[in-house]
Amino acid sequence: MEQPAQLLVWTDIDPAFEADFNRWYDREHMAERVALPGFRWARRYCSNKSRRYLALYRTASLAAFTSAAYAEAFANQTTWSKRNLARMVAPMRRVGPVAFERGRGTGAFIGLVTLDPGEPDLRAIEHLTGNAMTVDGIIGGHLQIPDAGLSTPLPTESTADRSLDPVLVIEATSAMAAERVTAMVARELNRPDEAMAILSLMWELTA
Fold it and tell me: What sign results for the dihedral spanned by CA atoms 19, 84, 155, 44?
């Protein structure tokens, strides 16, 4: 059985370009990516804090990111794409396998916890995620581990102190549940406040 994989793009944008940025994602970019072989869905999230916009793209496996179709799309970005990729502020682009996934469904909110780089203790983190799901309003979670070869940086992404951190995503039905449990998980994993974020779902596009 193939192991699912994921592309994560997390960025901020200058408010002067925000309308065009959102229009590009919603009218062109997500549809382009979901149409590629192996892509299952794309979701956009937003926050009122730094790095306000997050996009997640789920694929059947890492092979989707090494296909000829993906290479062609990646190498031949549209004019609209090039313009908005160049406008991203402090972006992060990470591609990697989904090490585990618990629960079912999509929450209206997610909590993110970035972990220490390196090999995470999968058994312990999956157990912690399962415990989190006993809290009302928490419906699932998954862990993405970046692949160094595939997680090439975006045009405006700094490479000076770039760290390929695993990312734990917690699915929640309310902001309150997401905030409470994400903070709890971050404490259990000895992660600082700046390693966590809460975002709300904007929309989803399925293949």
Answer: positive
Give residue for tokens 């996934």: 101
pLDDT in tens, 96-117: 999 999 998 999 999 999 999 8
1 has a pLDDT exceeding 80: no
The predicted pLDDT at position 118 comes to 82
For residues 36 and 14, is the Cβ–Cβ distance under 8 A? Answer: no
Closest listed residue to residue 145, CA positions, set 173, 166, 170, 122: 166
**Chain centroid offset of residue 61 CA:** 15
Is the separation of the CB atoms in 177 and 137 below 8 Å? yes
Q: Which secondary-structure segment (H or E) carries 110?
A: strand 109-114
| Model pTM score | 0.97
First to last CA, the chain: 20
> Locate tokens 């396998």: which residue?
97
Nearest 5°: the CA angle 175, 176, 180 is: 115
